[in-house]
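Figure 3 (text version): structure tokens given as input.
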């Protein structure tokens, strides 16, 4: 866990010059915008949640929780759930997302 915190802080530090101060939710949103592939635009509140869902599916796909099935006619990516995530406490959810984000930036960007 200690190594994860070091890698997490390094990931955040690398993003800050481009995007300013970011928290976990902000980074998830940025990944969703990137994966959506439509560039920056104004999103309605419900669309912001969908953008974050895109990011979460992208981040958890390598762990086997989701499988990419394609894009719809508007270009939005879609996944199917392969397995239900086990019940996680808030801190466990946060650690899983941090690990997935660190892996994302190591392996995809």
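Below: residues designed for each position.
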């Amino acid at each position: 866990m200690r190594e994860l915190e070091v890698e997490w802080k390094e990931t955040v530090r690398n993003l800050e010059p481009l995007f300013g101060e970011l928290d976990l939710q902000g980074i998830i949103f940025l990944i969703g915008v990137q994966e959506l592939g439509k560039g920056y635009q104004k999103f309605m509140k419900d669309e912001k949640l969908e953008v974050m869902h895109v990011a979460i599916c992208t981040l958890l796909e390598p762990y086997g929780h989701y499988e990419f099935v394609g894009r719809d006619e508007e270009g939005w990516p879609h996944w199917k759930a392969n397995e239900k995530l086990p019940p996680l406490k808030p801190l466990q959810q946060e650690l899983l997302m941090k690990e997935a984000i660190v892996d994302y930036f190591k392996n995809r960007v």
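The chain has four helices and two strands.
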